[in-house]
Amino acid sequence: MESKRNIVITGGAGFIGSHVVRLFVNKYPEYNIINLDKLTYAGNLANLKDIEDKPNYKFVKMDICDFEAFYQLMQDEHIDGIIHLAAESHVDRSIKDPFTFARTNVMGTLSLLQAAKLYWESLPEKYEGKRFYHISTDEVYGALEMTHPEGVPSPFTTVASSSEHHAAYGTDFFLETTKYNPHSPYSASKASSDHFVRAFHDTYGMPTIVTNCSNNYGPYQFPEKLIPLFINNIRHRKPLPVYGKGENVRDWLYVVDHARAIDTIFHNGKVAETYNIGGFNEWKNIDIIKVVIKTVDRLLGRAEGEDLNLITYVTDRLGHDARYAIDSRKLQAELGWEPSLQFEEGIEKTVKWYLENEEWMDQITSGEYEKYYDDMYKNR
Ligand code: NAD
Ligand code: DAU
């Protein structure tokens, strides 16, 4: 039995944050879980409808850059744990508007750190029993070479096993010790926030942890990201904009497995450590797109593959990183975490979820969800 804790999860109405909030609220009824979110375009309280009435859950609408408000919240709620996911998260938006990324991802993270420092240092026990857990991305490491053998189709591994993956494809992966080399404004802002978090440990002794995860997929992802955008476009038979040649490689992890890893690391991870989280599941974009098309077609009762003609090659993303691939053996060896799902099962579940939750998707794409917030939360 865990003891009582008062935990703020930032970004809980977004994609990954909503899965983390759901897992903590359901698994730890003795904890107070506060979901702190500004509800930008990416935040959607409909993501948490199933748990919004639970007694151990509270939603607070707040900007992470609002230092005074967060410092007050720390004191009012006696916060002893922070799991920080709130961020601007979409690379394409960062290319158009880098300032918003620096403000939220860098200044927002610094604001949380400083408020936590002031509050925790004012307590008699200071940092004992406290934790500041920062969720980051594999993109901070930059891009890997495309080292995979020519002509070998994705997936580059069908097993969630590090040893088989390494045996087949060498050792060119992001490790916890890989030097930071961010390329996009998004990854530069995340890298900067990671440095601030580590600096607060090294300078003030704050008990921090940083994790760097690969691409997530699953329910409740905002449909500007590859998989939900393409599922929705296939549904409506709209063109599928494939950047460049579609050869870029990403390492895909089911979002619930990321949330499980966050739970494990929050409770059992070592202070000041970094853990990489990934699925040993590398795919070229074009191959994953074909799987998504065939799965949507089959589940909608269309001829499998009949929508392959929606594939439309478009101008590449500026500075498009060639390949991400995470080595998560440290997390597996030290804390015993493993991905629970094979990709084939995960993608089937994901496509089914989007097709069965058309209303969730349609509200976002029609902009109705913004009105929902105005009506429901304007006086909070
Ligand atoms: P998301 O865009 O779906 O959600 C972000 C949430 O943060 C939204 O609810 C938004 O309202 C909130 N937010 C944004 N600015 C805010 C502010 N100033 N104050 C308070 N709340 C604010 O993002 P996601 O994909 O769920 O990513 C969550 C975190 O995980 C991010 O830190 C991201 O860098 C990291 N990450 C994401 C992935 C991925 O594949 N999506 C992989 C690795 C790491
Ligand atoms: O690696 C972790 C990162 O994964 C997270 O830190 C980011 O928050 C998250 O957005 C994701 O970044 P990517 O840029 O990899 O994800 P995205 O879904 O935008 O794109 C995945 C790949 O698909 C990428 O190579 C670009 C390509 N793509 C994307 C879109 C939206 C297309 O070809 N067409 C598209 O329309």
Provide an overview of this structure:
With 380 residues, this protein is α/β, with parallel strands linked by helices. Helix content is 42%, strand content 15%. It contains 13 helices and twelve strands. The chain has helices at residues 15-27, 67-77, 91-96, 98-121, 162-169, 185-204, 226-235, 255-268, 285-299, 329-335, 343-356, 358-366, 368-377, and strands spanning 6-10, 32-37, 57-61, 81-84, 131-137, 208-213, 215-217, 240-243, 249-254, 274-277, 282-284, 311-314. A seven-stranded parallel β-sheet has the order 3-2-1-4-5-6-10, sandwiched between helices. A three-stranded mixed β-sheet has the order 7-9-11. Helix 1 (15-27) links the parallel strand 1 (6-10) and strand 2. Helix 1 packs across helix 8 (255-268) and helix 2 runs parallel beside helix 4. The model has no long low-confidence stretch (mean pLDDT 92). The structure holds nicotinamide-adenine-dinucleotide and 2'deoxy-thymidine-5'-diphospho-alpha-D-glucose (DAU). 2'deoxy-thymidine-5'-diphospho-alpha-D-glucose (DAU) binds next to helix 7 and strand 8.
Q: Determine the fraction of residues in helical runs and give it as a percent range.
A: 40-55%
Number of strands: 12
The order of strands across the largest sheet is 3-2-1-4-5-6-10
Note the run of SSEs as H and E.
EHEEHEHHEHHEEHEEHEEHEHHHH
Walk me through the topology.
Blueprint: E1 6-10, H1 15-27, E2 32-37, E3 57-61, H2 67-77, E4 81-84, H3 91-96, H4 98-121, E5 131-137, H5 162-169, H6 185-204, E6 208-213, E7 215-217, H7 226-235, E8 240-243, E9 249-254, H8 255-268, E10 274-277, E11 282-284, H9 285-299, E12 311-314, H10 329-335, H11 343-356, H12 358-366, H13 368-377
Parallel strand pairs: 1-2, 1-4, 2-3, 4-5, 5-6, 6-10, 7-9, 8-12
Antiparallel strand pairs: 9-11
Helix pairs in contact: 1-8, 2-4, 4-6, 7-9, 9-11
Bound molecules: nicotinamide-adenine-dinucleotide (NAD) and 2'deoxy-thymidine-5'-diphospho-alpha-D-glucose (DAU).
